[in-house]
Design a protein that fits this description.
This protein is α+β, with helices and mostly antiparallel strands. The protein contains 26 helices and 32 strands. The strands form eight sheets. An eight-stranded mixed beta sheet has the order 6-5-9-3-2-12-15-14, with no helix packed on it. Helix 11 runs parallel beside helix 14. It starts with 11 loop residues before the first strand and ends with a helix. The N terminus is likely disordered. The structure holds phenylalanine and zinc ion.
């Protein structure tokens, strides 16, 4: 073996955390914006950190891609011999033991910045992204979240190019210089904050504004900045913001703290949005919405992300993270808060169903493969690789379990204590948990294991009824599958919500054998093996387990098809009624795959269709809920369920077969629903109207899969008659997915309609990338050189490459390896440009070990091609290493 030239990047470890010897408590920035040479003059007030136990020593400041032009300490320029500059640091050997001021001038190149971290330009707008470690690309700094400083920022720019100049906090002054040629503005943020929450924007932007009166009667000025001409598309986001502000007051007693709240929409952004103090920056696809341009899914996502970023003001900003290992402290908690908000604004049950679907799709698959990691990881090479479904979505589930275990009142008391005790601090998960222990008097020591241990627990349950004794027994065994680097696992503290349903469909009061009632139906599983006994049960009930998905586990219990049909018809817990339907569908799909594998024909599926038919017709159930009842598990869900020897093509066939069987079995019901849900009134994005569209579109999917002539006609008409993007995009996707004589015309038509809209056109790229047909790989390659495509735009990469790798299992996993080659080529081309996005695309290989042997072989070859490249970014290096080794 040849040894590689590359220095193996060094992992960072939680156990090595210590406070820095120095801290910076005041920052004065003067930023003069220029496309290629932006000048940043930073004045940093540095002092010994009172929390540090070590003596001062040399001062190491983080810094990357900076050109240092000037450095002085307490006004005296430093000699060239007294400091060192490397690729990642500025080191000053001797600094005073008393507080001092360090003045730095650095030059950065925003135009060349395509990694989109630090200061960059997006369609001509100057903007910043500093989480997690972008501030070090603006000036040398102690770029870590436990260094909190007060910022004053003066921005100067060409008045025509950037008349709007924004930063965090309050506007102190603004004006013109150089006879009106340059504009300037001074902003001051009174709240100490970590550097990752710093933001600056400059550009020729339009805006819409509104006001909000807080619960204590303060009037807040709200403003959304965006491209000229798109103002009308920001009203939904503004509306969502106000609802979120009100909700946080009502639900958590949290009031906004500055006089202004600003949101800026930019096109090129690595993530969804960023919670910078008082100046959130958003990916414009999560701000812009109108009937014509945005699907209901986007309307919903805007509402939830606007709320999420706003909620960070308390959970993330006022109380931040001590170090990046604590990321879930702000993210898991804030996702929990946005989920609760969406549930209150919409249907709580449907919200829970879609959150659970998403958790299983993204987090369970992560947890089941080589990229599995704990909600609080203990080591990382590149922190950007840990903005994951595990940290976010499983992190939210852990908070939800605490709420379930404690009950609403004690949970709220714990949150109040957390806000009170840690306001203004950089905290840890332990700090957070301690607040709930104190507020409730409960011991959460075992619960902490959830934060430290990766993997999805399996709960193997069996239920037995004793007719003579009129008692029942529930056996629960927790099995904790090994994950990379962690084979022996500790048992977890699991809240298991249950109900028992009598044969007549009544809810039975659940009495433990000691005579106590089960509080809120929640049992607590703490041992590896646990037996719960119940008494006074007159006849054999059907258990309804894990109600509301009370813990992020894989639960299995051998209920018969009859039992599932019973639950689908009677379970008063609507989440579990859906869960029963979903289990039944999955059971049917797995059976269909097994028959196909054995080369046999199976016609299973009719019973399932009939079992859900009554729910579909039940007018007492909301349309959005009925849509969930009809929606099948995805092909990826089936692959995850099978776990081994996966052949995506067989799953695809089984999936189509079931859809067809459903349409054949309950066709008339579906046709009637389709007509009944056809809207006539004016468009409204509210949850009820969106639910009707969702049901109609889900029905359309089933009927189109049937593939009769009339079905194709209906689909084509659905596309051409669409008066909103929900219907238009849904039918375009379906046309591409199924492939009908009308597909090509619709694709061409959609392009003509939307080629001038850089947000909407992403739907066109994605629809084509998702077509499960053999020509897709070649088409995607062609589209990578399409004039509207750009590798420098993360949204474009996600729409084309991401959609292909994640939503086209058949073509991504082609037996000839062409799908893998395509993605690897793109990852390698992207890595030098935007390593964060390259690493994310590569992570789409994370389930490769569950494939059948031949495809595994092909995937391994593709991954090894990445691993052999000598100059990989830390981001891609870490992912490829973990994926191959794990
Ligand atoms: N902190 C952001 C959020 O969850 C996500 C983000 C992370 C954005 C890193 C940019 C960079 O709201
Ligand atoms: Zn967040």
């Amino acid at each position: 073996m040849q040894s590689t030239k590359r220095d193996t990047p060094r992992p960072v470890r939680l156990k090595d955390y210590k406070p820095h010897a120095y801290t910076i408590d005041k920052v004065d920035l003067k930023v003069s914006l220029h496309t290629r040479q932006t000048r940043v003059a930073a004045s940093l007030h540095v002092k010994r950190n009172p929390l540090s136990v070590v003596e001062g020593g040399p001062l190491h400041l983080d810094g990357e891609l900076l050109q240092l032009e000037h450095i002085s300490l307490d006004r005296a320029p430093l000699s060239r011999a007294s400091y060192r500059v490397t690729d990642s640091e500025l080191v000053i050997d001797r600094v005073p033991s008393a507080p001092f001021t360090l003045d730095l001038v650095t030059i950065v190149d925003p135009e060349a910045n395509k990694a989109l971290q630090g200061l960059y330009r997006s369609r001509g707008i100057y903007c910043t992204q500093c989480e997690a470690q972008g501030f070090r690309r603006i000036t040398y700094f102690l770029d870590r979240p436990d260094v909190l400083a007060r910022y004053t920022v003066r921005i100067e720019a060409d008045a025509e190019e950037a008349p709007v100049l924004l930063s965090n906090g309050n506007l102190v002054e603004r004006g013109m210089l150089d006879r009106g040629r340059r504009a300037y503005a001074v902003w001051k943020d009174p709240f100490p904050k970590p550097a990752y929450l710093f933001a600056l924007v400059g550009g020729d932007l339009s805006s819409i504004s509104s006001t909000f009166r807080t619960m204590s009667g303060r009037e807040i000025d709200l403003r959304i900045y965006l491209e000229h001409g798109k103002e009308s598309r920001a009203h939904w986001a503004m509306d969502a913001l106000k609802r979120a502000m009100r909700w946080d007051e009502k639900r958590f007693g949290r009031e906004y703290d500055l006089d202004h709240f600003k949101i800026v929409a930019v096109s090129d952004f690595n993530m969804g949005a960023m919670e910078n103090k008082g100046l959130n920056i958003f990916n414009d696809r999560l701000i812009l919405a109108s009937r014509e341009t945005a699907t209901d899914t986007i309307f919903e996502a805007i509402e939830s992300v606007v709320a999420h970023e706003y909620f960070h003001n308390w959970t993330g900003n006022r109380i931040t993270c001590r170090d990046w290992f604590q990321l879930c402290l702000k993210e898991g908690l804030t996702v929990f808060r946005d989920q609760e908000f969406s549930g209150d604004e919409r249907s709580a049950t449907v919200q829970r169903i879609s959150d659970v679907r998403q958790l299983r799709a993204l987090q369970f698959s992560e947890d089941a493969g080589p990229l599995a990691h704990p909600v609080r990881p203990e080591t990382y090479i590149e922190i950007n690789n840990f903005y994951t479904a595990t940290v976010y979505e499983k992190g939210a589930e852990l908070v939800r379990m605490i709420a379930t275990l404690l009950g609403a009142k004690d949970f709220r008391a714990g949150m109040d204590l957390y806000f009170e005790r840690h306001d203004g601090q950089a905290a840890t998960v332990e700090d957070f948990i301690a607040c709930f222990e104190e507020a409730s008097g409960r011991d959460l020591k075992q619960f902490m294991t959830w934060y430290r241990q990766a993997g999805t627990p399996q709960l193997l349950c069996s239920f037995a009824y004793d007719k003579a004794r009129k008692s029942a027994e529930l056996k629960v065994e927790q099995v904790l599958p090994p994950t990379p680097g962690e084979t022996r696992k500790k048992p977890l503290h699991i809240p298991l919500r249950l109900g028992l349903i009598s044969p007549s469909g009544r809810e039975i009061e659940v009495l433990r054998d000691d005579g106590t009632t089960v509080r809120d139906g929640v049992l607590e599983v703490t041992e590896r093996s646990h037996v719960f006994r119940f008494r006074d049960i007159p006849s054999r009930p059907v258990p309804s387990l894990l109600r509301g998905f009370s813990a992020p586990v894989n639960l299995s219990i051998d209920l018969s098809d009859r039992d599932l049909e019973f639950l689908i018809a009677t379970d008063g817990d609507l989440f579990n009624r859906w869960q029963a339907a979903n289990t039944y569908a999955m059971r049917t799909l797995v059976a269909l795959v097994r028959s196909l594998t054995a080369g046999k024909r199976s016609t299973r599926g009719g019973a399932y269709a009939r079992a859900i038919e009554a729910s579909l017709r039940d007018r007492k159930l909301e349309p959005s809920y009925r849509a969930e009842m009809l929606r099948l598990p995805t092909e990826a869900d089936v692959a995850r369920e099978l776990a081994h020897d996966v052949d995506p093509l067989l799953i695809h066939r089984a999936h189509r077969q079931l859809a067809r069987l459903i349409a054949n079995t309950v066709g008339p019901t579906l046709e009637r629903l389709y007509d009944e849900m056809t809207g006539h009134g004016p468009f409204s994005p509210d949850a009820a109207s969106a639910g009707r569209r969702a049901l109609r579109n889900t029905v359309l999917t089933m009927l189109s899969m049937r593939g009769g002539k009339a079905d194709h006609t209906r689909l084509a008409q659905h596309y051409s008659a669409a008066t909103n993007m929900t219907d238009q995009a849904h039918s375009l996707n379906l046309l591409c997915h199924i492939g009908t004589p009308d597909t090509a015309a619709a694709v061409a038509h959609f392009y003509d309609c939307w080629k001038d809209d850089h947000v909407v056109i992403d739907t066109w790229f994605a629809a084509q990338a998702q077509a499960p047909i053999d020509t897709t790989v070649a088409l995607v390659r062609d589209l990578t050189v399409h004039p509207l495509y750009a590798m420098t735009s993360p949204n474009k990469v996600r729409a084309l490459i991401g959609a292909f790798a994640l939503n086209n299992p058949v073509q991504f996993n082609r037996p000839d390896g062409a799908g893998y080659s395509l993605v690897v080529d793109q990852v390698l081309a992207l890595d030098p440009i935007n390593p964060q996005i390259a690493a994310r695309m590569l992570a789409s290989f994370r389930s490769w070990r569950s494939l059948e042997a031949h495809r595994q072989q092909q995937a391994r070859k593709a991954l090894q091609r990445v691993a052999r490249v000598p100059s990989l970014s830390r981001d891609v290096y870490e992912i490829v290493t973990r994926i191959l080794e794990g």
